[in-house]
Amino acid sequence: MKLIYTDFPYPTEIHDVAKLFWDDTELTDSPDSAQICVREQCGDVCCYYARAFGKEHTERVNIEGLNGLQQIRLRKRFAKLAIYNLLVSVTGKTMPWGSLTGIRPTKLADQLSREGLDWKSTFCDVLGVSANRAQLVEDILRTQGELHRRKEGCADLYVGIPFCVSRCSYCSFTSGEITRLQKYVQPYIEALKKDISATIAFAEKKGIRIVNVYFGGGTPTSLSARQLDDIMNCIRFAPNEYTVEAGRPDTIDSEKLAVLRDHGVNRVSINPQTFNQSVLDVIGRKHTVQDIYDKYELAKSFGFVVNMDLIAGLPSESCEMFYHSIDEAIALDPDNITVHTLALKHGSKLKEQNYTVASNVGLMLDYSRNNLYSAGYMPYYMYRQKYMAENLENVGYCKPNTPCLYNIGIMEEISDIMACGTNAISKKIVSSENRIERSANAKDVITYIERNEEYLDKKFQLFN
User: Fold this and answer.
1) Residues 93-119 pLDDT 10s
2) How far is 307 from 297, CA to CA, in rounded Å?
3) DSSP secondary-structure letter at 273?
């Protein structure tokens, strides 16, 4: 265990950087017992003194004349930079994203540009981001183009279905196996229908135009065709984009796809995660590789835009096996392919089993990027997570004119989100103050059903 002491008022920022280098780090209130120490001395110029294992590093930043929010941003940025550069010196290791620990590098690049800075130079020369990752950000911003723009008076609607047919070993979501929760499924549907109908009515009353609708989970298609039809009857308008995650091939059939099509759904996700049967078995997916091919062709026969997810770093999957998965996905030619980096999250079976991700995940992502570019895909959104293997990223790639607008809106934080269902978080962007207000629903099914009215009231207060 490596102990960290800091008098910086945002200690988690310091801790997050240290965890890039060592998982076994912990904050301490005792400077005498700490192996790593970061101190702040702040006036018009803020100084950050970092010390660890006999080495020291100092960073300085001038915050004179800046407003409070700008000052906080720069203080955080340079405090993190001080400990990052120190630990690079101590360990000899650099990180692909340098000192950045945030979820949305593209959002930071846009923010720096609006501040009149050369974001790419700041990323590479100041924050330590690799040229390869900075180029990825540039490519994503180019693909997004005019889509990276906030539309006032608009919102997207998220609908959460917290059920799955089985739980994958990497999953930390609050969704549950539908067979075990069967007695709660219909009460949940009734509460959700009320939530959706009330939310849409409220949006109409307030003059908020709902642009895109996204059904996520869990696995929405773990419900029956009749249940899906019942829920979707609440949406009596035609969104620009209507997406349903039909991620598990073993939950898809013609009857369900017909219901989706008849309700105006135009995008679905069919997520292999891997095209290697032995890996599917290890991670707890209850379908075959052949099911992936069959259900993909079925979905395309209904005319849907299709996304396929793959995960780099799964247990027992070598580089060559992952390369095979990428090659097979490209050969199927879906409209979108999203490549995730495995994140070991609390609550997942892999985390409980102390699974260690192989050190070759970076090679997997490089192969993905090179081959997807060659096949005509371009990156259009990205996000990063804590506990992600090798401090890497998740990237969505698309064929021309097929990006998922909901994904861009939520990841770049340029769209208000009106969210319905368990573990759903509504978000209101306050552009004039450059902040986001949130209202979260209960994470579990039972509490959501019992306190549905309370969560509706909170959501409405957010958008009043």
Assistant:
1) 999 999 999 899 999 999 999 889 999
2) 12
3) B
3-state secondary structure of 79: helix
- The pLDDT tens digits for 194-205 are 999 999 999 999
Cα separation, 416 vs 429, whole angstroms: 6
Burial of 194 (0-12, 13-18, 19+ CB in 10 A): middle
DSSP for 387-424, please give it: TBGGG--EEEEE-TT---HHHHHHHTT-SEEEEESTT-
Could you tell me the two tokens for 205?
């009353």
Residues comprising the chain, all counted: 464
- Predicted TM-score (pTM) above 0.85: yes
Sequence-distant (6+) residues with CB within 8 A of 126 are 81
Return the bridge partners of 341, or none: 312
Q: Which is nearest to 243 in space by CA: 213, 200, 209?
A: 213
Distance from C-alpha of 337 to C-alpha of 49, rounded to nearest angstrom: 44
Helical H segments across 123-276, by residue range: 131-144, 182-206, 225-232, 254-262
**Alpha helices (H) along 242-340:** 254-262, 277-283, 289-301, 319-332
Contact present, 443 and 174 (Cβ < 8 Å) = yes
In 3-state terms, the chain is what percent helix, strand and coil (to 5)?
A: 45, 25, 35
pLDDT at 343: 84
Three-state secondary structure string covering 123-165 = HHHHCCCCHHHHHHHHHHHHHHHHHCCCCCCEEEEEEEECEEC
Domains annotated for the chain, with CATH where assigned, are 1-93 (3.90.950.10), 96-142 (no CATH), 150-457 (3.80.30.20)
